Input
Amino acid sequence: MESPLSYFSTLTDSRVARTREHKLEDILFRAIASVICGAESWNDMETFDKVKAE
Output
Protein backbone atom coordinates (compact mmCIF):
# COMPACT_ATOMS: atom_id res chain seq x y z
CA MET A 1 0.00 0.00 0.00
CA GLU A 2 1.31 3.41 -0.95
CA SER A 3 1.85 5.99 1.77
CA PRO A 4 -0.90 8.63 1.84
CA LEU A 5 1.79 11.29 2.14
CA SER A 6 3.20 10.30 -1.25
CA TYR A 7 0.27 12.17 -2.81
CA PHE A 8 1.72 15.38 -1.38
CA SER A 9 5.28 14.77 -2.59
CA THR A 10 4.98 17.37 -5.34
CA LEU A 11 4.13 20.17 -2.90
CA THR A 12 6.79 22.76 -2.34
CA ASP A 13 7.40 24.19 1.09
CA SER A 14 7.16 27.95 0.76
CA ARG A 15 8.15 28.67 4.36
CA VAL A 16 11.43 30.46 5.08
CA ALA A 17 14.04 27.73 5.61
CA ARG A 18 15.61 29.23 8.73
CA THR A 19 12.27 29.39 10.54
CA ARG A 20 11.14 25.83 9.84
CA GLU A 21 10.72 23.92 13.07
CA HIS A 22 8.95 20.87 11.58
CA LYS A 23 9.07 19.08 8.24
CA LEU A 24 6.11 19.74 5.94
CA GLU A 25 5.40 15.99 5.78
CA ASP A 26 5.07 15.86 9.57
CA ILE A 27 2.65 18.79 9.60
CA LEU A 28 0.51 17.22 6.88
CA PHE A 29 0.44 13.85 8.65
CA ARG A 30 -0.56 15.42 11.95
CA ALA A 31 -3.30 17.47 10.29
CA ILE A 32 -4.74 14.45 8.45
CA ALA A 33 -4.57 12.23 11.54
CA SER A 34 -6.31 14.80 13.73
CA VAL A 35 -9.14 15.31 11.23
CA ILE A 36 -9.63 11.54 10.91
CA CYS A 37 -9.88 11.43 14.72
CA GLY A 38 -12.57 14.12 14.78
CA ALA A 39 -10.80 17.48 14.90
CA GLU A 40 -13.02 20.21 13.53
CA SER A 41 -10.86 23.30 14.01
CA TRP A 42 -7.24 24.44 14.18
CA ASN A 43 -7.54 24.45 17.96
CA ASP A 44 -8.75 20.83 17.90
CA MET A 45 -5.76 19.93 15.72
CA GLU A 46 -3.38 21.61 18.15
CA THR A 47 -4.93 19.85 21.12
CA PHE A 48 -4.76 16.49 19.35
CA ASP A 49 -1.11 17.03 18.49
CA LYS A 50 -0.18 18.02 22.05
CA VAL A 51 -2.00 15.03 23.56
CA LYS A 52 -0.45 12.56 21.12
CA ALA A 53 3.04 14.04 21.48
CA GLU A 54 3.16 12.80 25.06
Remarks:
- The chain has a mean pLDDT of 88.
- The longest helix spans residues 24-36.
- Residues 21-54 form one domain.
